[in-house]
């Protein structure tokens, strides 16, 4: 059983071998939380609440979640194969303007979040309003966190 891997650091601060924690190789973080059913239920409800926004269409959340999964090299769910290919090629001009705005931010969240420009955040506000901007940016951060937790569960992090 493995809940994740981390690299042990010896007394000299040197990186050592991977150490396994409780869980099962290859399962997602949410699946591993089955060991703690109350926490699993609350975590799932929390993730659902992140995407509960009247200001941001469900499709926008789905596209962004898929793009962040792609960036992390993980499976994409909830969009068509054609959309997945388009996202992978980064041809954003095939999407609606509001979707493009959200995808520009999604592209930066995993590894370039410090490069998210004020103008890009303002464009999100224009597309979705203040509440939608908060909802979207929060969701993007947690899509990234979820991918990282799933990668850890799958032993992809060393």
How would you portray this structure in words?
The chain is built from six helices and two strands. It is mostly helical and 158 residues long. It has one domain: AhpD-like (Up-down Bundle). Strands 1-2 form a two-stranded antiparallel sheet. It is globular, with a radius of gyration of 17 Å. The two termini are 16 Å apart. Residues 1-25 have low confidence and may be disordered.
Write the layout of secondary structure elements.
Blueprint: E1 5-9, E2 15-20, H1 29-32, H2 37-50, H3 58-71, H4 81-89, H5 97-112, H6 118-153
Antiparallel strand pairs: 1-2
List keywords for this structure.
mainly alpha; disordered N terminus; AhpD-like; 158 residues; 2 strands; 6 helices; two-stranded antiparallel ribbon; globular; single chain
Q: How are strands sequenced across the largest beta sheet?
A: 1-2
Q: Supply the number of structural domains.
A: 1
The major beta sheet can be summarized as: 2 strands, antiparallel
What structural class do the secondary elements suggest?
A: mainly alpha
Q: H/E element string? A: EEHHHHHH
What overall form do the CA principal axes indicate? globular
Low-confidence stretches: 1-25
Q: Supply Rg.
A: 17 Å
Number of helices: 6
The separation of the N and C termini measures 16 Å
- The CATH architecture term is Up-down Bundle
**Proportion of strand residues:** 5-15%
pLDDT averaged over residues = 82
Quick structural overview:
The protein is mostly helical and 158 residues long. The protein has six helices and two strands. A two-stranded antiparallel sheet has the order 1-2.
């Amino acid at each position: 059983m493995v809940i994740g891997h981390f690299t042990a650091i010896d007394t000299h601060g040197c990186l050592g071998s991977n150490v396994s924690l409780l869980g099962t190789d290859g399962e997602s973080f949410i699946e591993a939380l089955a060991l703690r059913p109350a926490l699993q239920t609350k975590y799932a409800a929390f993730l659902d609440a992140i995407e509960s926004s009247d200001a941001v269409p469900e499709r926008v959340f789905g596209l962004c979640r898929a793009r962040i999964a792609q960036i992390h090299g993980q499976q994409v769910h909830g969009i068509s194969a054609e959309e997945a290919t388009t996202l992978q090629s980064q041809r954003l001009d095939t999407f609606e303007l509001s979707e493009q705005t959200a995808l520009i931010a999604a592209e930066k969240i995993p590894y370039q979040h410090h490069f998210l420009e004020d103008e890009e955040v303002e464009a999100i506000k224009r597309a979705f309003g203040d509440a939608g901007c908060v909802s979207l940016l929060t969701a993007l951060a947690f899509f990234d966190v979820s991918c990282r937790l799933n990668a850890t569960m799958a032993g992809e992090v060393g």
